[in-house]
Automatic annotation (TrEMBL):
Gene transcribed to yield this protein: EXT2
Entry's transmembrane regions: 29-51
Source organism of this protein record: Oncorhynchus tshawytscha
Database matches in PANTHER family: ACETYLGLUCOSAMINYLTRANSFERASE, EXOSTOSIN GLYCOSYLTRANSFERASE 2
Essential cofactor(s): Mn(2+)
Protein's UniProt name: Exostosin-2
EC supergroup of this enzyme: transferase
Keyword annotations from UniProtKB, A to Z: Coiled coil, Disulfide bond, Endoplasmic reticulum, Glycoprotein, Glycosyltransferase, Golgi apparatus, Manganese, Membrane, Metal-binding, Signal-anchor, Transferase, Transmembrane, Transmembrane helix
Length: 731
């Protein structure tokens, strides 16, 4: 500071003009040198970013590099090492280096594809008789076009060889193994993925690829329980080019009527290479059940030029294949020489429920797919009982299985792209389990957006998209009370968003300028029909996990009561949290259940005129409500609150939580006479609801408790200003 003050003194004016030129001359070389160094550094950085980091990373898997004719020729010396047979004890934590994958914001693995090379032995004979198949080329193209792909080998978590081992019949086993061992990053197969659909060969037909592969992961078609390394390998389907090339005339599984129409046959068998013992048993079943079972075989009397693969015959009658599969409710999928059969894909495409008779077979993608929803698995020894077993399945369940089978094919079987992406997603879910797809995402058609919700029955692995709660107000035309409700709710500190469900199709909502001005976002959703179930629809606008369902006339709840209810739900997220409680009782004289609204200390339900719950239950109410309960509620315009109490109690096995002393919602607009008349009819209808719902559920899931949650110091003689929730209402 002293020197600065000296520079600004009077001496500066005498010597300054003489010093400035000297400083420029003295430091000119320094500044030029510094500028040059910085410029060279920028140029070097740019070159490093765009220059290939290694020889391997220059081999981008682009369209012009997929021809085997242009691939470099690699000769395999006879003395080249051969990998180990394969470690059956391998698991993700022992044979896979997850640290290669590291952390990334997208929670996505990076996959590197080796450049194409033509491997030949010392005599110039290729290791494969087919080279690169169309199916494997499609698979590699899919990976290279996906978000999993990287052309930087140093960033890769998973390595996919460009050596086609889909069909073992076309491979020379020893030479293929030597080629794998020559890969630059092989490292005993660590973090390498091989795709194989046709394993084994005569006479034993092993259920896993015979090529020695060290610790490499195997995505295989036809695994048995003896060769499948659970949680490490991935069981994939045997791709059917036939079903992919044929467009079935009525393949529209989004049309419900397709699955409700009767089908000509009950059971159909279309495989041509069935073992004679199985065929004899099927013929016996055919004799017993007549036209209900169609037993097809290959055709021997086709005209020249007709593709035999697309025809099946029965006693001289010719059927188009796979179109004929659509005419049956169930289709037989028997083991052949290999466990995995392409017939499974054909059957799923046709929306025919597969009957799988292949003991020890690991079904495709069974790690994530619930095959009980789309197939019937029968032990081979119970083939004689097949008809009886299938007849015991309710028709409605068969229709659901047909829909699920069709959707499985579309999502996971329909192309090499679908198979490849599913395989990588399964491996990705293992490496990033906290961001993995849920059961619902894997097994429910995408009409249900399960990706936006987590089940409250399990500990959350990632935080919700938005804190606080979303208030969902169901309204019809009570504008004045609606605006009062909105104003009161807006005072609650934890309110994140307010969603008004406008249930009146004959009247438009008020103009934007008329709505109350509140700090939280306010959104109005107009419904297509006036249904009570619209209250529990999983709207995209609901980004919080906590939801407050509230009627447009509940103006008596204070902001403290609402905030306290929200905080109770945060601590017990899987329970319904409400204010007035209600009870169900067994009427011994009438022999049925009765709805009770007397002011007792016992509760088994809370009214959803104002109740907090997890948004997960919106999805269950809309898409998984048993039987016809949802339609029944909408038809009677009553009991939606009882229905969701049944649903939550059935899922959790727990009673709701009643908070604060309030036991009744008073309707300020109802007269005493109207209220009494309304109440009598109301009680009868709600008792009928309880009996109806108990019948559909097949049990009484509601639980009775004597419990109420109140704030700390609620009754204590304590200064109000020191209480967290001073304004708690009375009865």
């Amino acid at each position: 500071m002293v020197r600065l003050s000296m520079c600004s003194s009077g001496k500066y004016s005498l010597r300054g003009p003489a010093l400035i030129p000297r400083m420029k001359t003295k430091h000119r070389i320094y500044y030029i040198t510094l500028f040059s160094v910085v410029l060279l550094g920028l140029i070097a950085t740019g070159m490093f970013q765009f220059w290939p980091h290694s020889i391997e990373s220059t081999a981008d898997w682009s369209l012009d590099r997929r021809s085997m004719h242009d691939a470099p020729l690699i000769q395999l010396p006879v003395s080249n090492p051969i990998p180990e047979r394969g470690d059956l004890s391998c698991r993700m934590h022992t044979c896979f280096d997850v640290y290669r994958c590291g952390y990334n914001p997208k929670n996505r693995i990076k996959v590197y594809i080796y450049p194409l090379q033509r491997f030949v032995d010392e005599g110039g004979v290729p290791i494969s008789s087919t080279g690169l198949s169309r199916e494997y080329n499609d698979l590699l193209s899919t990976i290279s076009d996906s978000e999993f792909y990287t052309d930087d080998v140093t960033r890769a978590c998973l390595f996919v060889p460009s050596i086609d081992v889909l069909n073992q019949n076309s491979l020379r086993i020893r030479e293929t193994a030597q080629a794998l061992a020559m890969l630059p990053r092989w490292d005993k197969g660590m973090n390498h993925l091989l795709f194989n659909m046709l394993p084994g060969g005569p006479p034993d037909y092993n259920t896993a690829l015979d090529v020695p592969r060290d610790r490499a992961l195997l995505a295989g078609g036809g695994f048995s329980t003896w060769t499948y390394r659970q949680g490490y390998d991935v069981s994939i389907p045997v791709y059917s080019p036939l079903s992919a090339d044929v467009e079935l005339p009525e393949r529209h599984h989004h049309r419900p009527q397709r699955f409700t129409l009767p089908r000509r046959y009950f059971i159909l068998s279309s495989q041509t290479a069935i073992h004679r013992e199985y065929r004899a048993e099927l013929e016996r079943l055919k004799e017993e059940n007549g036209e209900a079972l169609l037993l097809l075989d290959k055709c021997s009397n086709l005209s020249q030029g007709v593709a035999s693969a697309r025809k099946r015959c029965y006693k001289g009658q010719v059927f188009d294949y796979p179109q004929i599969l659509q005419e049956s409710s169930f289709c037989v999928v028997l083991r052949g020489a290999r466990l995995g059969q392409a017939t499974l894909s054909d059957v799923l495409q046709a929306g025919c429920v597969p009957i799988i008779l292949a003991d020890s077979y690991i079904l495709p993608f069974s790690e994530v797919l619930d095959w009980k929803r789309a197939s019937v698995v029968i032990p081979e020894e119970k083939l004689p009982e097949m008809y009886t077993i299938l007849k015991s399945i309710p028709h409605r369940q068969v229709e659901e299985m047909q829909r699920q089978a069709c959707w499985f094919w579309d999502a996971y079987f329909s192309s090499m792209k679908a198979i490849g992406m599913t395989t990588l997603q399964i491996i990705n879910d293992r490496i990033y389990p906290y961001a993995a797809r849920t059961y619902e995402q894997w097994n429910n058609p995408p009409v249900v957006k399960w990706s936006s919700v987590n089940s409250p029955l399990f500990l959350p692995l990632i935080p919700p998209r938005s804190p606080g709660f979303t208030a969902v107000v169901l309204t019809y035309d009570r504008i004045e009370s609606l605006f009062r409700v909105i104003t009161e709710i807006s005072k609650v500190p934890s309110l994140a968003k307010l969603l008004v469900v406008w249930n009146n199709q004959n009247k438009s909502p008020p103009e934007d300028s008329l709505w109350p001005k509140i700090a939280a976002p306010l959104k109005v959703v107009r419904t297509k029909e006036n249904k009570l179930s619209n209250r529990f629809f999983p709207y995209d606008e609901i980004e919080t996990e906590a939801v407050l369902a509230i009627d447009d006339d509940i103006i008596m709840l204070t902001s403290d009561e609402l905030q306290f209810g929200y905080e109770v739900r945060e601590r017990i997220p899987y329970r319904l949290v409400g204010y007035p409680g209600r009870l169900h009782l067994w009427d011994h004289e009438m022999g049925k259940w009765k709805y009770e609204s007397e002011w007792t200390n016992e509760v088994s339900m809370v009214l959803t005129g104002a109740a907090f719950y997890h948004k997960y239950f919106n999805y269950l109410y809309t898409y998984k409500m048993p039987g016809d309960i949802k339609n029944w509620v909408d038809a009677h315009m009553n009991c939606e609150d009882i229905a969701i109490n049944f649903l939550v109690a059935n899922i959790t096995g727990k009673a709701p939580i009643k908070v604060t002393p309030r036991k009744k919602f008073k309707c300020p607009e109802c007269t005493a006479i109207d209220g009494l008349s309304l109440d009598q009819t109301h009680m009868v209808e709600r008792s009928e609801c309880i009996n109806k719902f108990a019948s559909v559920f097949g049990t009484m899931p509601l639980k009775v408790v004597e419990h109420r949650a109140d704030p700390v110091l609620y009754k204590d003689d304590f200064p109000e200003k020191l209480k967290s929730f001073p304004n708690i209402g009375s009865l």
